[in-house]
Write a structure and sequence with these properties.
This protein has 43 helices and 28 strands. The protein is α/β, with parallel strands linked by helices. It folds into five domains: 188 residues, Rossmann fold (3-Layer(aba) Sandwich); 201 residues, no CATH class; 214 residues, Rossmann fold; 150 residues, Orthogonal Bundle (PCRA, domain 4), CATH 1.10.486.10; 138 residues, Lambda Exonuclease, Chain A (Alpha-Beta Complex). The strands form seven sheets. The protein has an eight-stranded mixed beta sheet with strand order 2-1-10-3-9-8-4-5, sandwiched between helices. Strand 11, helix 23 and strand 12 form a beta-alpha-beta unit. Helix 2 crosses helix 3 and helix 10 packs across helix 18. The two termini are 65 Å apart.
Amino acid sequence: MRISGPGPQAAYRIDGRLVGRDEFYAQACDPRRSVVVEACAGAGKTWMLVSRILRALLDGVPAREILAITFTKKAAAEMRGRLMEWLGDLALADEGARVQALVDRGLSPEDARARAGDLAGLYERLLASGEQVEVRTFHAWFAQLMRAAPLQWLERLGLAPEAQLLEDTSELQGPAWREWLDRVHADPALREDLAALMREHSGSRVREWLLGLIDKRVEFALADAAGSLAASVPSAAQWRPAFAGLDHPAQRLRHPAVTDTLRAVARSLGAQDKGTARKAAQALEEALSLEDDAAALAAARSALLTTNGSVRKHLEAPGLEEAAAWLDEIQQGMAQETAHREHQRLTRLGRVLLEVYEAIKRRRGLADMADLERCALALLGNDSLAAWMQERLDARVSQVLIDEFQDTNPLQWQALSHWLSSYAGASGGASGQRPPGVFIVGDPKQSIYRFRRAEPRVFEAAKDLVVRGLGGSVLACDHTRRNAAGVIDAVNAVFLAAQAEAAYSGFRAHTTERHDDVVRGGIWALPRVERPERGAREAGEPGWRDSLSQPRHEAQEPWRAQEARLVADAIVQLVRGDGVAPADIQVLARRRAPLAGVAQALRERHIPCASPEDHALLDALEVRDLVALLDALVSPGHALSLAQALRSPIFDATDEDLVGLAQRARELGSWWAALTHEGPGGWPSEPLRRAARLLPAWAEAARHLPPHDLLDRIYADGDVLARYARRVPPELRESVRLHLEALLAWSLELDGGRYASPHQFVHALRRRSPRVSLGSVPDAVQLLTVHAAKGLEARVVFVIDTDPDRRSSADRHDSATVLVDWVADEAHPRCFAFVASERNVAPSLEAAMAIERAERAREAMNGLYVAMTRARERLIVSASAPHNGQNGPSWWSRLSAVSEAWVQRQEASPAAQAAPGAVEVWRLPSLQRPAVSPGPVLAPERGAGARLGEVVHRCLEWLAGPEGPAFERIDELARAAAEAHSADDAMARAAAQIVRRMASDPTIGALLGAEPVAWAGNEVPVVTDGRPGRIDRLVLQHTADGEQWWVLDYKIETHPDTDPALVAQLERYRHAIRRADPQRLVRAAFITGDGRLIEVIDSAK
């Protein structure tokens, strides 16, 4: 795109100074300068970043020395693709186009003409170099640093160099919780901590509290090590000296000054003529006579104060206000002490839970995202390692570019700033090296990921480092190329008004490149769905519901459904009346729930729609049909799964078919028997006849085929894709197809395809509930949450549910949570506190909670900014009246004030709109192959010995798995391994005998996990002399002289040490481990089929 020209003067700033467009891009795209760019939505942030990469390549910077960091793999792929596309296009462009491209990217016309020839050959030079620009996510870069770290340091951090990345920590929450409960049960002190919490809170709240620690465990650990964890919730005595020396704050009620004041108030009230006053005096006297201090305090407060702490009406007496202040102070002291004790209990229980979680990860050879961040911070922030790591980075990186910086969390910033701050000052600061060119771009107004620990305040810290430490500049761009003038006018009106109310800050009026467009665009509001009067509402509610035939509806559901219908009708008008393509429409909401209603209304009107964001694969009905079919094949006794499979489009059985089958099952003992045994009158229907033919064949195949191959056969034999296409409406066909193909793909991807049987695959699917993204479904309305829509845009955008009920909105304050306050430049959180209810926090936490609420309120406004700026031309908003409104102005109140009323034209009823037609599936004729006489067999079938070796290897891998040795299950594991390799029962018995001989040797048994080891892994990948290999088992063993490595190779032969090739391979594996860890002894041995450990003497010694 062309961007040169004068441009709106108020849109561009350098260090706060207004500048022209050309001067702005001259600095932003110059790789020799370090800059932080704050750019509004649609300003072209990625364009600037990739342009700077192009300029760096043009200046001769090797591609391998350019590091670009972003937050998603999708964004990284987009950057790479855009760079290569530009280079390819410019290589074929004419001279004028290349000159203009360089002028757009900040060069003067004279310099652009001089460099245009170099730009023409840049694509060819990059391809010839064989190098690529490093475009990575933060976590991919951190993983790269971890792989380069010394092994001893990784061991200190509890990480394995080849650990598998765990992207979803919820997979380990169940195992961690169960193991943690066992630990708590065995420890009386921990058991009492848990019991005390359960007496005050529900089990679900305690579980929510503790499991929430897993996602915040790095902050927990840093705060714990720094001492701020324990100090986050002080005791009442630490909070107020007045409570010092008391066993409980309620004892403060017995202080003479307090008691005298309360008795004086009681006498004064008792002497009055009013009945209310005398009644209060009597209640106060009775309260002071109670022996239990806490009960006395509660009774005294009840006598004088309302539930919100104010003095009751019609009570007047000297000293009453002072007495109320005493009671309020003591009540606050009790709240503080309660919060302190709960915080201490949760801290102790949380430490154990995190120990268990870390132990499970180590046993399974896993590392999660937080481990990568923790490792990067340790490598770049530790004095003994930082210099070494920075020297390696200096040799590899001369340009650092970071996109969407407002989404950075404090831990990521700490790691990054440790590296970059080493260059601060003259002559490269402490590093003594020339600093890399730094380009940081983002928009704090679009920071909406605090639930993922993003901290927009790091943006200010980055500005300070780049300006003060690296001599760079801060640039700002408030000019968009996305939004029409009408949309930008609405954005300016809403946010300038919020800023005037002190509800927002840092907003500057935006300008747009599209002010000359034919379509001005604008914002419209659908009619707000109002709640009926209470009497009318109750009159329409049934007094009794048949739960078997009538679904239960939430109280808010009718209003949500009506709002969804209004949105769907407006979309129909746009699509069928105004010619807008469905793919040009987005529907956004803060939560997923309202989008489901819109999807249903659109389906009723036969408008295609899709939700491109991640969702559970098992949420798709068609996927559940296939899983039920697999379950029925491997467990024929599961009648419900069989019934679901028969009723699905795969077979199209009717209810009458199932009733008849159930009646026959009573005679024959099971549904499977009834289906697979034809009755005297034949099959009552074609669906059952078809099922009786296909299901037994698939059940037999399930005994020896892996899940992917079995599914592939079912899809082919059962004509699954075509049958679903015929049954579903046109608007659903594409998403159904994508879900079915996603299930097939997941049969290979789930844990690397390790689930070798359909039964294990079904179990893993249900336990793990994998999430998938279908991407953008062609020609469909896109239904997205605001978070998922960030970075996207559409011609028309609907923002729905803009006035949600407080109980269903993000404004809820009644849940248990963890309060974290971490200032970006500090090494650890200032505060890490467990909070039982955000409405009633401990008095010492009120200031921190006020900051948290302010940040949430700003993030809610940021979400509104993101939603509004997705619209290129039209923004349409909707709402239904809430039962309980939010605190402060809602999105609806802000948007409706600047909106025009939407005018809905009459449309046909949903039932009459484009009813789906029949689908005709065309088939090519079968290929008739000519008869060929059989020839000689060129390759013999794989020998039984080789297959036996594979079965033994698989059995040993499972035997010595991450959950610990399973010696008592050798026979079961051998049968499963034989099944996985299509071997018979005889081979399973032979394999079990070999494995049992191996495990019975004490030395071998210890290496297989019978005794504790420092670390162990199966099938460990290594590269030796450029050749990939795989170590059967690698063990780091404790010995009296320290730790030593064992490189183990399983062989069913009895004398593998006499084969030079096998010995040479084992030596290469030993050499690879020694190179990675030169400090420890590395031993290598064969484990033979006759149960011997044959050590191979190190030839290097």
